[in-house]
Amino acid sequence: MWFVFALATTALWGLAELFYKKGAKEDEKYSHLKTCICVGVIMGLHAVFTLLTKRIGFDPINLLRYLPVSLLYIVSMALSYFGMRFIEESISDPIENTSGALCSILCVIFLGYEMSVPGWITIGIIVIGLLGISFLEQRDNPERKARLGKKMAIISFAMPFAYAILDAAGSFVDVIYLDIETTPLVNVTEETIEEVANTSYELTFFLCAVLLFLFLKARKVRFEFPKQSDKVAAAVCETAGQFTYVYAMSANGALAAPVISSVCIVSLLLAHIFLKEKLTWKQYIFIGIVIVGIIALAVIEGE
Length: 303
Fold this sequence. Notes:
This protein has 303 residues and is mainly alpha-helical. It has helices at 2-23, 31-53, 61-65, 67-84, 89-96, 99-111, 117-140, 142-148, 150-177, 193-218, 229-261, 263-274, 281-302.
């Protein structure tokens, strides 16, 4: 069953990226905040469902205890949604998915984890791919600079990198939080710790969504939830993917991780088919290098 859950996670998160991009309107100033609201609402509903249907012994104090991790994830996603307004999904998604490699490096540096030589080689391959994408983006995309201005073009292209860094930091701290021996969370067991952490994250995202909704109302920005169809669809796919991810990783994480890491390929294909995104052959080569590096690292470190 782990393989079914892994495939479901890959498909759901690939679809989520497609809908995120469809809902990211370049000329809509607060599009990224509206996406955050939609995701927060759906995640909040899932958290309530979890609390009503499962006995996980949830202590509300864990909302505060898990807050550093939650905020790292939430801010990283908000920056990603902002970048999606201006950057092709085919470019941003492979960059964002390097967060796993960054997390591995953090674990090696600060937690004393060991990484094999092939693991370091694959990280080097990922870096080469990222440098190639960055070079080509800055050299071969004068249209974006002309449309957005040089400053905004640089800021928007930096957003996928910002996501990768913050998401990696969140995953790194999660390593500590999800270890029953070191976790600051209270009233948790080996069986409930992951769901307690995820519920804390989802409830925090919901509270952020409420604050953002009030912010938009104060700014007199129109927001009608039923009309945010693409954003809501993305949020549903994101949350459903998180649900299947937990089961895939808990059943056979070593083999599930490489399968799930191929979400880059799914989002690339969907962007090409449905969003009609077209890049140069040089860009596709370097994107392919990054994707191969990500999958290879997942396979090597999962052994």
